[in-house]
Amino acid sequence: MNALQTLSALIDSDDPHGSAPDNLAELHLEVLRQRFAEKRQQIRVLDKRAVDTGTDTLSHLADAIPLLFADQTYKSYPESFIEKGRWDHMNLWLQTLSAQPVKVPTDGVENVDQWMLRLREHGHMVFSSSGTSGKCTFMNHTRDDMPLSHSAGVNSIRAGNPMLRGARRKQFVLFPRYGSHRMIDMVSMLTQVIGEPGNVHYLSDEPVLAADSMYMGSMRRAIADGTAKPSDIEQFQRQGLERQQKMQQAMADLAGKVYAARHEPIYIQCLWSTLYGLVQALRDQGVKPGQFHPDTLITLGGGLKGVSLPEDHREQIRSFFGIADENFVDTYGMTEMSGTCPWNYEVKGFMLPPWVVPLILDKSGEKLLNPADGKGVVEGRFAFFDPLIDGRWGGLITGDKVVVDFSPGHGLKVPVVKSVARYADLPEGDDKLSCAGTMNSYVRGMIEV
Questions:
Q1: CB 378 within 8 A of CB 369
Q2: What does the DSSP 8-state code read for residue 179?
Q3: Which residue of 80, 214, 335, 420 has the fewest C-beta atoms within 10 A of its own C-beta?
Q4: Which InterPro entries match (predicted)?
Q5: What is the structure's pLDDT at 445?
């Protein structure tokens, strides 16, 4: 088997973090070389970057650093394309970052969610993701990417707790059932293998739409820079209040179902912020701490996404449910990565999937800090290469500052992330990448409109 096949086979292992081969570092470099040779022939932006940096071969992991895309690259389109409904132009933009031709008719498309649906109908499995700015990231996958990506996501989470590989459970999902966001798709896959048929309960059936995220982001920016009209602000605030009231009622309804099942070994899937909201709703319904079945399992993760919570919110949550720490399957990851990183209580860190190539960089994103001997602890900006993705280039630089232990012991053969913070949230401030502007200019220059 070649490197990609060997790494892909680990997805189906019950213990991918402990059963990774001893030559994992060699496989990482080999799969990076393999994918680079393939993708530079398919993705013009990647090939141009390789030519401009004189990168023809990858002798070391460090050689790939100039080829990594910033996360901002996947939202480098001019917003006017969406505002003016220029979906043919959005196709051209997406083409610059895709491995397959984006020859998709756009007649009849009226909004961004319809554009994504049209793309999926033609084999481009595009998902959106948005931050607090509201400008959506659009990431392309092939149809063949999806089964592998789904297996990687499901099995990496199940590897974090053997109880998730047991009997199906009554499941409570603190996410909407539908939506174009990548997270919704990943959650749906988990419900199909862990949730008890007919007993999966979602927070809402109202879909998460990219258009809504973009509208909220644009309004926040307009309010901040003083260009929003008073009538627009009034409408925005009214809609926000209505949305908040709907969500509070949805959380109260779901809390009632959780309350009724609290003595069963249920499974809750959530973010830390939504789980805190559930705890508050359960308290309002008279539920006391420690009333839950001891085999209750909770999978969670994600930052607070701009939500303000008490500093001790995690301690409050753990105390309220009264279950063992190991029953909380905390995770670190992102929608751009195949799989996720479950928390390991022995080493006190998030275990990286063995198929993901970790690249720890300095803050500017220019220098590789991975230890030469593959041992020890380093601190820096988290970047990675995901070889499982075929629809686009798998190399990405994130905005996360991490501490990574490359030799954690305890039978693990993968690095673990010991701590995570967003550069933008730290006292050191700005989160500027030297490569971000360069990649964005490449993309803009290739949109021939």
A1: yes
A2: B
A3: 80
A4: ANL_N_sf
A5: 60
Q: Which of 200, 182, 92 is nearest to 145 (CA)?
A: 182
Fold of 146-206+252-332: Rossmann fold (3.40.50)
CA distance 72 to 284: 41
β-bridge mates for residue 298, sequence order: 268, 328
CA distances (Å), origin 418, targets 276, 348, 397, 411, 438: 23, 7, 18, 16, 31
Residue 28 has pLDDT above 90, yes or no: yes
Largest Cα span, the chain: 65
User: What single letter denotes the amino acid at residue 239?
Assistant: Q
Tell me whether strands 395-405 and 416-422 are parallel, antiparallel or unpaired: antiparallel
Give the per-residue pLDDT at 309. Answer: 81
Burial class (CB in 10 A: 0-12, 13-18, 19+), 220: middle
Amino acid present at 36: F
398 half-sphere exposure, CB direction, 13 A CA radius:
24
Q: Are 412 and 17 in contact (CB under 8 A)?
A: yes
Q: If you search the block for the tokens 């305890």, which residue do you land on?
A: 410
pLDDT attached to residue 170: 95
- Mean pLDDT, the chain, whole residue set: 89
Where do the domains of the chain lie?
1-72+349-449, 146-206+252-332
- Regarding predicted confidence, which is higher, 130 or 175? 175
Only one residue has tokens 């659009």, namely 138
Neighbouring residues of 83: CB distance < 8 A, sequence distance ≥ 6: none
Taking alpha carbons only, the member of 190, 50, 156 closest to residue 414 is 156
Residue 302 has pLDDT above 80, yes or no: no
pLDDT at 384: 97
Strand ranges inside 327-439, DSSP E? 328-332, 341-344, 349-351, 357-361, 377-385, 395-405, 416-422
